[in-house]
Specification:
The chain is an alpha/beta fold. It folds into 2 domains: 41 residues, no CATH class; 128 residues, no CATH class. The protein is 51% helix and 15% strand. The chain has 6 helices and 6 strands. The strands form 2 sheets. The chain has a 4-stranded mixed sheet with strand order 3-4-6-5, covered by helices on one side. It has a two-stranded antiparallel sheet with strand order 1-2. Helix 2 packs across helix 5, helix 3 packs across helix 4 and helix 5 packs antiparallel against helix 6. It is globular and about 45 Å long. The chain starts with a strand and ends with a helix.
Amino acid sequence: MQPKTAKLIFFTYFHTSIDREAVLLSFPQKLYTTEEIHVAKELINQGYKHDLIVDGTVDFKVKVNQAIAYLKTAGYYDFFRTYIKEITEIDGLTQLRETEISIWTNQYAVENPVDAASLLVQKAYSMQEYLDGEIYYGGNAEKRSVIKRVEFLQALKEKTLVSAVEQECQRLLDLWSESALSF
């Protein structure tokens, strides 16, 4: 697959006979180096959005697409596509793959599409912190990402027109409220 191209970015450190050279950049395939992260940040700051890829079984894709529909309903889809380019089904634990700009997850994690959507927001927020150079793992980072997850559930609850989704949001918010006591 060809990398997606983006707007022109002017860098002063690309010197030629012209004072400033326009360089057309594409989003890096992987984020291993500080230069790749810098390019990714520049493109994101200019409004870059990934063309989201979902890779897995048909059942997995159906559940993830339901979760994505909830991201759209709550107004979080563009935020998500800013920081995540792929969701891949695995037979293991859910994890953010920062260098691959992706989330690896399993069928069980997406079984409840409302909860799955909130998990996707949480992982996207962690990816945002990674790109911003913040500590994106550990206790304090986990608290911050859970706050974003709860904010998403509140937004979805307010914006959905489906009472079952509203009720599921409230159920999950109640669970998060109970677990917040341990923070």
